[in-house]
């Protein structure tokens, strides 16, 4: 189908809500561009990472929060910011064709967490420390370390204003990276102060960039009107010199903001974290104030930011609640895993304790309840799978039992059934030794099957 005809088909599908047209234009069903399947054995690396995450979160007393993947579009327009890249061009937004609601697949989760905190009045009895893990969606150009569905780990501390929380959150990241063996990650810091300070800096910025308006690209020209701070965040190499020479926000901070920032730097150093102030670090999102930070590697090119975060004391108010200080970060899990050279196979070989060999279909009604009892007792068992034509030959089943890596074969055959027993045959390190056990006292012998490793 030509591009033009495809475009017409899409338009037709969208305008008429005609789902049939959406089917017609695809002859082969594949994953959506920029969205990845995570398959075994690679998924074992994800589980391994997630286990470390739960450990570290527990060590800092952060608790898990799970919010919906779909939120009202207004949440991100207000919470992430109308003039951010995310809201301007990266969101998967759609109208629910059944009730007309404007919805968006979450591009980040801080607004969702804050929305939930407000909705359930989570901070009524004091601050809350929370973390989440899950998929986020951004319509970006897919490349290494940049996908359209990607996974973020995030931590948020709601209702705490002290600089020690900013530091606690950064220490968590450092500890997690240490545990999973990530090296050569640098920490960059800046302070965005408070609104009055940012407004004075903004006036100076507008004055500076207006003087150099000729040198700005179209994007920056537009931002000069909407959100000049964001020009400092530009990725255009041609603008780097101009941006280097711009007035720095740090020069506009008052005594209270400087004190907060100094305490952050002092405590980080006391805890052995090496940091560097980057006066041009502004982060892409509108809601930050005071401390902002990034954990960066040089090994992923332009996708080097592994984790970014900071304080967002104004976000609760922006979403219509009473002012509540907060600080947090988000981490790209794909980028972190890309750097970790652990072989999935080495992590957790998926080997069952036992493999059930089942001679004939008639044996299933006795075998399956026994296998249930074994699993209940903590034994992992892989059952041979037959077909409508019945069970495969014993020879072929024993081959599969060997290939599974299990230490034992449980043999449910005609003789065994007649006598109410199962034969346990050793598949590893022995001479095929076998014993017979009664089905009725499985609790007595289940533990002998469990691998000790
Ligand atoms: P970048 O500058 O790389 O676009 P960002 O500032 O948009 O990052 P945040 O919104 O702060 O990113 O998200 C936190 C982290 O999530 C990033 O530091 C990165 O590790 C990860 N991340 C962001 N966008 C993507 C993506 N499209 N694919 C994979 N990971 C991503
Ligand atoms: Mg981005």
Compile the SSE list and pairings.
Layout: H1 3-16, H2 19-24, H3 43-59, E1 63-64, E2 70-72, H4 73-79, H5 85-90, E3 92-95, E4 102-105, H6 110-119, E5 128-137, E6 149-158, H7 163-179, E7 186-191, H8 195-211, H9 218-226, H10 240-244, H11 255-270, E8 275-277, E9 289-296, E10 305-311, H12 315-318, E11 326-332, H13 333-339, H14 344-347, E12 354-358, H15 364-376, E13 381-383, H16 394-404, E14 408-412, H17 414-418, E15 421-426, E16 434-438, H18 442-445
Describe the structure.
- This protein is of the alpha+beta class and about 450 residues long.
- It folds into three domains: about 1-30; about 40-195 and about 255-345, BirA Bifunctional Protein, domain 2 (2-Layer Sandwich); about 355-450, Rossmann fold (3-Layer(aba) Sandwich), CATH 3.40.50.
- The chain is about 40% helix and about 20% strand.
- It contains 18 helices and 16 strands.
- The chain has an eight-stranded mixed sheet, sandwiched between helices. A five-stranded mixed sheet has the order 13-12-14-15-16, with helices on both faces.
- Helix 3 (about 45-60) runs antiparallel to helix 7.
- About 30% of the residues are buried.
- The mean pLDDT is about 90.
- Bound molecules: adenosine-5'-triphosphate and magnesium ion.
Task: State the main characteristics.
18 helices, binds adenosine-5'-triphosphate, 38% helix, 8-stranded mixed β-sheet, BirA Bifunctional Protein, domain 2, 3 domains, single chain, 5-stranded mixed β-sheet, alpha+beta, elongated
What is this entry, summarized?
The chain has 453 residues and is an alpha+beta fold. The chain is built from 18 helices and 16 strands. 38% of the residues lie in helices and 19% in strands.
């Amino acid at each position: 189908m030509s591009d033009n005809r495809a475009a017409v088909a899409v338009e037709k599908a969208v305008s008429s809500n005609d789902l049939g047209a959406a089917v017609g234009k695809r002859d082969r069903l594949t994953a959506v561009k920029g969205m990845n399947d995570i398959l075994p054995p690679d998924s074992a690396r994800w589980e391994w990472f997630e286990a470390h995450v739960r450990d570290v979160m527990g060590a800092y007393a952060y608790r898990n929060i799970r919010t919906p993947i779909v939120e009202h579009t207004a949440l991100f327009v207000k919470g992430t910011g109308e003039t951010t890249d995310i809201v301007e061009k990266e969101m998967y937004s759609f109208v629910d064709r059944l009730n007309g609601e404007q919805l968006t697949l979450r591009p980040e989760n801080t607004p969702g967490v804050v929305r939930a905190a407000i909705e359930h009045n989570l901070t009524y009895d004091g601050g809350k420390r929370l973390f989440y893990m899950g998929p986020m969606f951004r319509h970006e150009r897919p490349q290494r370390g940049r996908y359209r569905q990607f996974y973020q780990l995030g931590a948020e501390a709601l209702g705490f204003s002290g600089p020690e929380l900013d530091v606690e959150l950064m220490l968590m990241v450092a500890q997690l990276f240490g545990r999973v063996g990530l090296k050569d990650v640098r920490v960059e810091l800046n302070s965005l102060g408070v609104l009055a300070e940012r407004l004075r800096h903004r006036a100076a910025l507008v004055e500076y960039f207006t003087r150099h308006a000729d040198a700005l690209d179209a994007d920056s020209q537009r931002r000069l009107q909407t959100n000049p701070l964001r020009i400092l965040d530009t990725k255009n190499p041609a603008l780097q010199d101009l941006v280097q020479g711009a007035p720095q926000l740090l020069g506009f901070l008052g005594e209270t903001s400087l004190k907060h920032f100094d305490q952050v730097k002092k405590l980080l150093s006391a805890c052995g974290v090496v940091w560097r102030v980057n006066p041009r670090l502004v982060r892409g999102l509108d809601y930050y104030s005071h401390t902002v930070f990034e954990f960066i590697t040089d090994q992923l090119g332009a996708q080097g930011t592994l984790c970014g975060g900071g304080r967002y004391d104004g976000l609760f108010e922006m979403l219509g609640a009473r002012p509540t200080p907060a600080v947090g970060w988000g981490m790209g899990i794909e980028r972190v895993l890309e750097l970790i050279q652990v072989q999935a196979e080495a992590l957790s070989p998926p080997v069952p304790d036992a493999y059930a060999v089942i001679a004939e279909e008639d044996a299933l009604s006795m075998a399956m309840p026994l296998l249930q009892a074994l699993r209940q007792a903590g034994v992992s068992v892989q059952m041979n799978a037959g077909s409508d034509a019945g069970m495969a030959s014993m020879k072929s089943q024993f081959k599969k039992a060997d290939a599974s890596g299990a230490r034992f074969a449980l043999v449910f055959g005609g003789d065994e059934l007649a006598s109410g027993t199962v034969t346990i045959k050793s598949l590893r390190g022995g001479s095929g030794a076998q014993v017979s056990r009664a089905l009725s006292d499985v609790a007595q012998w289940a533990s002998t099957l469990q691998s000790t490793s």
